[in-house]
Structures are given as structure tokens and as C-alpha cells.
Amino acid sequence: MIAQYLPPRDPRTIGWFSAGDWVTFLLIILSYVCLVKVVLPRYMTGRKEFNLRGIIRLYNLTLVFLNVYFCYNVAIHSYIGGGYSIFCEGLHVKSGDISIVQLHYQYMFVRIVEFLDTVFFVLRKKFNQASLLNISHHCIAVFLPWYGMSYGIDGQICLLSMVNMTVHVIMYSYYFLASFPSLRLYLYWKRYLTLLQIAQFVIIIAHMSIPLFYECGFPFQTALIIILMYIYFFVMFIKFYGSTYQTGISTASRQGSRRAQSPPSEIIFRGSTNKDSCAKGD
After folding, report:
1. Which of 216, 245, 252, 273 has its CA 20 to 30 A from that of 21?
2. Within a domain: 157
3. What is the predicted pLDDT for the residue at 1?
4. Secondary structure of the chain in HEC code, one letter for each residue
């Protein structure tokens, strides 16, 4: 029934795990939500919070390198070495080259690994940070590459991926550094990370709007879905920025002393319900 409103199935990913399989995708999402909202909170009842500082540092550093790797390789196969148009680029279903598709497929699993953001919150008994916004962000962050795997994930979407991966490199680097108490006084620029994320959303929305008005072979439905989801992130980040920085609640030192792990990045502001949260290694 829903198929009539979707683009044609991408033949390049037929047979790949979960690609085009709504049941598998929903099971992944429901398992994540059930884990962080039911199973782990019950497990932590009556237990002391875990000290995960070392694990979280390793986690943040690993994600820095993974995002550098994927951003570089997407760039090499698209705008730098693939002859892509920065203005508007359609899908390359008939080209025979599936390098970019494979990279995004692999990156989808990185997004699934990022479910650990919320898991770490719960294990550290920061239940308020396992918020609706945090959880919905992670669900959308997995949905987008999964949807792309199913209906086409090269072409116009590559700039989105590169911008987002670059922001992730900066964000996870910040969270890694903020886990060291001796460095927190120097990390006064957290508010600018939020502005960077907002700027990212504007760039992505603008760039993904081009296929809505200019025919270049990129699916209209895909562009529209991405735009709507990034508008959601844009609105929520604007609210977060206004409530946190325009009211004078947060200060650089307080931000650097309380962070843990959560976001959208879209990903990416971490700690949507904790205005002073910042360092993912506390």
C-alpha cells in the first residue's frame, strides 16, 4: 500500500541485509527503544550507576576516526574523484559502480552503533537525557541510510553525508576532549557547536530542495523526506539553543563539567533535556 508513494526499489541492494525490508528495520528500531526505555531502566533499578568514562572516551575517539574514513571515501567517489555536480546529481543506478552505495551501507551500521549514546545515558542513570528527542534522533539517523539503501543513496545525498560526517568529527572530538577535566576550561566554544549543527541543517535543507524544482534524476520523494526530517532537527535545535544560551542558563565551565552522551546530529546535540550537559566522558 505504501509502495505506491515510494521511489522504485534500488536493484543494486536487493538481497542486502535489511535493505527494502520494513519488518527488519522496524524490529531494529523497536529493539532499541525497548532496550533503553524498558529493559535497561528496570535493570538499573536499585543499582549504582556505571563508571564508563574510559569506555566512552574510546567510543568517542573511534567515532571520530570512522567519520573521517567515511567522509574521505565518499568525497573521493563523488565530488572529488567521481565527477559529481555540486548543484544537482541524480542516482547512478545504471553505472555499475556501487562504491558509494557500499560506503553508505557500512555507515548505516555506524549509526546503529550510535545507539550506545542512549545506552550509556541509562547505564549512568541519566534517564532524563534518554529523551524523546534523543531517541527519535537516533531512529531517524538509522532510517535515512536504510531508506537510501532501499531506494537509492548516491547522487544528491552525498553532500548531505559529507557535511554530516564532518560535523560528527568535530562533535565527537569535542566530547572526547571534554571528558578530560584538565581541558574543560578551554572548551568554551560548545555553543558554537550548536550553531554549527544549525548551519548544517540549513545547508542540507537548501541542497536537498534543488531536486524538488530541478530535474536531475534524483527521486522527488527521497528529497522531500530528507527535508522534512531536517526541518524537524532544525526546529528542535533552535529551541535548544534559545533556551540554553539566550537565557544565560549555561556557562562554558558548567557545560564542560556535566556532559555525557545523547543527541541529534543530526546528531547531534547531546543532552537535549539537560541544558548544561556536555562532556561525554563524565
Report:
1. 216
2. yes
3. 59
4. CHHHHCCCCCHHHCCCCCCCCHHHHHHHHHHHHHHHHHHHHHHHCCCCCCCCHHHHHHHHHHHHHHHHHHHHHHHHHCCCCCCCCCCCCCCCCCCCCCHHHHHHHHHHHHHHHCCHHHHHHHHCCCHHHCCHHHHHHHHHHHHHHHHHHHHCCCCCHHHHHHHHHHHHHHHHHHHHHHCCHHHHHHCCCHHHHHHHHHHHHHHHHHHHHHHHHCCCCCCHHHHHHHHHHHHHHHHHHHHHHHHHHCCCCCCHHHHHHHCCCCCCECECCCCCCCCCCCCCCC
Chain-centroid distance, C-alpha 83:
26
Residue 161 or residue 129, greater confidence: 161
User: What is the structure's pLDDT at 277?
Assistant: 40
Whether this prediction's pTM lies above 0.90 is answered by no
Q: Which of 43, 189, 158 is nearest to 90 (CA)?
A: 158
Cα dihedral across residues 243, 129, 133, 256: positive or negative: positive
Residue 110 falls within a domain, yes or no?
yes
- The rounded mean pLDDT for the chain is 88
Q: Which domain holds residue 246?
A: 50-258
Asked if pLDDT for residue 275 goes beyond 80, the answer is no
Q: Within a domain: residue 27?
A: no
